[in-house]
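Continuing the series of single-chain predictions for the mutant panel. This is the parent chain; the variants come on the following pages.
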Amino acid sequence: MSHGIPVIIDTDPGVDDAVAIALAVASPEIELLGITTVGGNVGIELTTRNALDVLAMAGRPDIPVAAGAARPFAVERSADAAVYHGGNGLGGVALQPSPSQPDPRGAVDLLVALIESSERPVTVVAIGPLTNLAVLHAAHPATYSRIERIVLMGGGAHVLGNDSICAEFNIGYDPEGAARVFSAGVPIVMVGLDVTAKAVTYPADLEPLRAAGPLATALARMIDFYMDRAAERLGERLSRLHDALAVAYLLDASLLDVQPYWVGVECAGTLTRGMTVVDVRHFTRREPNALVAVDVDRDRFVDLLVARLTAHSRAAGEARP
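Parent structure:
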């Protein structure tokens, strides 16, 4: 019986989502109960297939994957993030298809089953739009309240956007869903864009992955796509593996400096829709509803990430027939 933290990952793979899933599988501190998928970086069919294929390549095709919301909680949206993740969501890297199929119960029913059946309270790592969790709260509030905490990648303590001027993609994709999650009362750790932007990886950081087996090599190729996009925009090859930092927090909380703040989500602003409004000066005098990351130890994060992925990939490669 595993003594790791019982975890469900809610995700929209996505290059950095794929790295985050692989890191969770590679880490004995985590007992990965299941994965639920949501439309976001690419459409729901691709995010679900990508989750299955990454798990299979990581040696865990037995972990259930269930497809969830294809659209946001309240307001339809068509734009995705394929320009950053490639048409297939994985930087154009084609993985060996998983022998497993999506769980027929769907994301919300799988969440209910895993949360209700777990002997210990479950942590949800939410690294995509928060639509599935918003639906879970609306349909099964008692089950939702049993979640121990939600560690999410999204938003930011200060104004910084990649979906708009001031909205991070996961929150900006579904502000109404995010607003419901932040107001629902379950403890939240928010790992935002302003902090993940500091957790930069460079080409030299990836070199140990390239000869460490099929999993690590595939992940390095996905990250290469990220770096190519960054070079086009910024003139420098680098990557920010946003979602992996949320998983890394479970492995070593000291990687992040987190502070208690009240966080709201703007749903109506003409210029600010999707912005996380973080009361860093305690202006509203509202009780904090989240632990908000404000800084990261970049070097230790990268060292942890590369070491775990390299070791697990080598072990998985040796175990293949």
